[in-house]
Amino acid sequence: MIDTRALGYVVIESTDLAKWKHFATRVLGMMVAPSIAEDGVLYLKMDEYCYRMRIEHGKQDRFACAGWEVAGARELSHAMAELDAAGIAWERAAPATAAARKVHDLISFTAPGGLRCEIFYHMELDYLPLISPVGVSAFVTGYHGCMGLGHLAAATPDLQASHGFFTETMGFGQTDYMHLHFAPDPQDPGQGLHFLHCNNPRHHSLALFQDSNPHPGDLVHLMVEVPDLDTLGRMMDRVHSEQVRVITGLGRHTNDRMVSIYVETPAGFALEYGFDGVQIDWKNYLPTTSARTSHWGHRWGQG
């Protein structure tokens, strides 16, 4: 199996970089990366990594890919062999592409279920401080960013195949499972939702949602975490003043204990902005099955 360490970066395609810049800096509190400049690309910084979000100008608004981090060159070579064994076609990036990503090397592929992925090692850390234009002091990413930028939730038409790939090939561990029912019909079969963790203390870096229907922006949601309730509350004030669409209001999740709100991004998919997510010692953890998503809140459309 691949020793996947964290969600290192995401790539998003956008028809309007100015809209993303405003949303990310004035609502979320990120900063434009000061150490990188590239025509037609917006780099967003959250921590000591030189960037965490790469927003590329394109013909549509969508989530383009997730960048998964491994420890080094040997681990990347092992990942290539594991993908070959699983029958997954992959491509090695040209040196110019790796240089633009600010990594030593990377490969790209499409996972079962359709999630576009990259595996990389050694992204540059510029160690420049986060200077948020709205006063966000930090984002929770671990020591030197070891827990990654947050997590993402992706839809898949084949939950079993997607789950098998990420657990058996990518090396993700099972954290939790839910079976959700959105219709009152007792014959409704419901939809499964797996929560999977990488080799770091974050409760989950990937959630796989059983759904064959297209989602806005080709993603269910992306999550970033802040250190305290006041930072979350001030973000909620900015959501109101900037008239950002609220998808689900404030609530606390059951499994990762995250207190959060979900809002619409310029790409159309949701962004979860939260604090107080649990961090886990995996040596003493037993995977769970949860019967409900939240202890309280997270009501649709309520800010």
Gross morphology: globular
Counting H and I runs of at least 4 residues, what is the number of helices? 5
- Quaternary state reads single chain
Spans where pLDDT lies below 50 across 5 or more residues:
none
Query: What proportion of the residues form beta strands (DSSP E)?
Result: 25-35%
What structural class is derived from the secondary structure elements? alpha+beta
Biggest sheet strand order reads 17-10-11-12-9-13-16-15-14-18
Helicity level:
10-25%
Q: Tally the beta strands.
A: 18
> How far is it from the N-terminal to the C-terminal residue, by CA?
42 Å
Tell me about the biggest sheet? Answer: 10 strands, mixed
On the 0-100 scale, what is the average pLDDT? 96
Description:
This protein is 18% helix and 34% strand. The chain is of the alpha+beta class and 303 residues long. A ten-stranded mixed β-sheet has the order 17-10-11-12-9-13-16-15-14-18. Strands 2-3-4-1-5-8-7-6 form an eight-stranded mixed β-sheet, sandwiched between helices. A hairpin with an 8-residue loop joins strand 2 (31-32) and strand 3. The relative contact order is 0.16.
Furnish the topology, listing elements before pairings.
Blueprint: E1 6-14, H1 17-28, E2 31-32, E3 41-45, E4 53-57, E5 62-70, H2 73-86, E6 90-92, H3 95-101, E7 105-110, E8 116-121, E9 151-156, H4 159-168, E10 173-180, E11 191-197, E12 206-210, E13 221-225, H5 229-241, E14 246-253, E15 259-264, E16 270-275, E17 288-290, E18 294-297
Parallel strand pairs: 1-4, 5-8, 9-12, 10-17, 13-16
Antiparallel strand pairs: 1-5, 2-3, 3-4, 6-7, 7-8, 9-13, 10-11, 11-12, 14-15, 14-18, 15-16
